[in-house]
Amino acid sequence: MDTPVDDANKECNFFVSNLILLQYTKEMSIFAWSYNNRLQLIYMKKITGKTYLDWYENMLLWRKFEDKLAAKYIQQKIRGFLHLYNGQEAVLAGCLHSTDHKKDRMISSYRSHVHAIGLGEDPKFVMAELFGKATGTSGGLGGSMHIFSKKYNFFGGHGIVGGQIPLGTGIAFGDKYFKRDSVTLCFLGDGAIRQGSFHESINLAALWKLPVIYIVENNGYAMGTSVARTTSQEDLWKLGEPYKMPSMPVDGMDPVKVAEAIDECVKHARAGKGPSLLDIKTYRYRGHSMSDAQQYRTKQEVEEYRKIDPITQVEKIIISKKYGTKSDIEKIDKKVKAIITECEEFAESSPFPDKSVMYDVVYEQKDYPFINHKID
Hints:
The chain is of the alpha/beta class. It is built from twelve helices and five strands. α3 runs parallel beside α12 (326-349), α4 (89-97) crosses α9 and α6 packs across α12 (326-349).
């Protein structure tokens, strides 16, 4: 039987190996056995100097947006639970680069404020939702864990661990049934992969060849227990192999690696070949939620991962490859700061929803005999 020391060593070795993976290895293609599929990378959307500048601006906006939410949570302007995305920005940046925002969809867990923003939703409406204000994306009725944007194909924001997995599978089923050329990106955490609905969903997706990509944003700790202590199979991407779907690990601290993997998976899905599973290895710099004391990891470990912060890595590439200057970076920083200030002022000044609307969207059926649906 393992002793507490054995457990600690096992957990330490897990994160050391992950850090080595993120820093030094080049991921193999999930379609490495297929020459034709390897050629697909040649035809993916180009990653240019402008791409890096956009990545820097977007990731910085997401980081500062979440930082502002943390400050407002402490001031009790935001209530309930709050799960922040700090450190995981390269995952979303890479995904957005390789998808078509006009037709592809995203669905995620409760760590998803910036996903809606990345797809095009105005950040001030997202912040207003977190404040519980009537001007929010769900009229102030959803809050932090229920960010939605129908206009921008973002389907939540779900408070139930793993609750989005069968829903994302269902969205993909609908797209295939109605012959829509759309791909669904279904985000989940490494903790949600323990849910039985995960296996039920990927089994049906593989059986019916649904156009869905299951993206495990593997930050290593779920709510506070490391992957090494919760599973006999630490390589989470291998869970897709029994279902005969392309599966692979991806360096989630590098948006280029993410973009390349997503590009392959999207093309695979659009070709009618079915789902994929990506184990995107990333790291969150903040706790699971604002109430997390983070006693399961050391400050030294967090600082080691800060050395490969995706935002600073992108900034270094911009400067080293002369995609931009220090002056350009400063202009972006100033622009982002102004946007965050605008979001804060908008959310603060917006009204709370009237109590009378509380029950107006409980049931979708407009003529429900007890509580009518009144809000469209």
